[in-house]
Amino acid sequence: MHTLMNLRRGALALALSALASLASAATYHIELDTASLVADYGSSGWIDLQFNPGPGNTPWAAVTLSDFSGFGDAASAQLNGDVTGSLAGGYTLANTSDWNDLFHAVNFGGKIGFNVSFSGAADPTEKANQSTFSVGLMNSDASAYLGTTDASGSLLQLNWTAGLVADQGTVAAAPLLSTPTLPALAAPVPEPETWAMLAGGLALLGLARRRKPV
């Protein structure tokens, strides 16, 4: 009986630990559904991606972008501030200047997607300011932001807060002043070991359910 109870407790702890890892994931998949834009704006436009520090004391941080879909001609990309990389190898935006911006051509009519991974220095004081990653879309001549009336032009924003340990900060969605009319999704992407941990915990729970005390 005690063995069965211990098995259940261990399985539950493993599953809960995996779920906690999902909740604190530092990699997110961003997806924008642009199907509604074609009628008014044609088949192409621009995505405006920024990663900027807060005022005052903000520890070093960076975002790495990868796994792109719906992106257009890479030759026309504009990199401003501390932005490096390529569409083929991924882009990195660091918060070392006030304005760090990747302006890239995209195709309208389907879904635009990419992964964003956060990293950064530790903050032993736990009092430093956040850095903000923002996503916006613009029309083909870059004269207007699309899908939002927010003053920032953002469809969504994610705030990175440094933790006590390097690369162990937290990510939270920042509220916008207005609700975007264009569907925008930011979903955590679990690491492979997190999936394995969750699967292992669920498997143990299933085993514990099947076992009957004697």
Care to describe what's here?
The chain has 214 residues and is of the alpha+beta class. Helix content is 21%, strand content 36%. It has two domains: 48 residues; 164 residues. The strands form two sheets. It has a six-stranded antiparallel sheet with strand order 5-6-3-8-1-12, with no helix packed on it. Strands 4-7-2-9-10-11 form a six-stranded antiparallel sheet, with no helix packed on it. β5 and β6 form a beta hairpin. α1 runs antiparallel to α3. About 12% of the residues have low confidence. InterPro entries: Ice-binding_C (IPR013424).
**How much strand?**
35-45%
Query: What is the H/E string?
Result: HEHEEEEEEEEEEEH
Q: Total number of β-strand segments?
A: 12
| Count of discrete structural domains | 2
Which sequence of strands runs across the widest sheet? Answer: 5-6-3-8-1-12
Give the termini distance in whole angstroms. Answer: 7 Å
Radius of gyration from the CA trace? 21 Å
Question: In this structure, how is the largest beta sheet organized?
Answer: 6 strands, antiparallel
Number of helices: 3
Q: Provide the structure class.
A: alpha+beta
Shape: globular
Please mark out the parts with pLDDT under 50 across 5 or more consecutive residues, or reply none: 10-24, 193-202
Helix content: 10-25%
Q: What's the overall average pLDDT, rounded?
A: 83
Keywords: Signal
Domain Ice-binding protein C-terminal: 188-212
InterPro entries: Ice-binding_C
Pfam family, one: PEP-CTERM
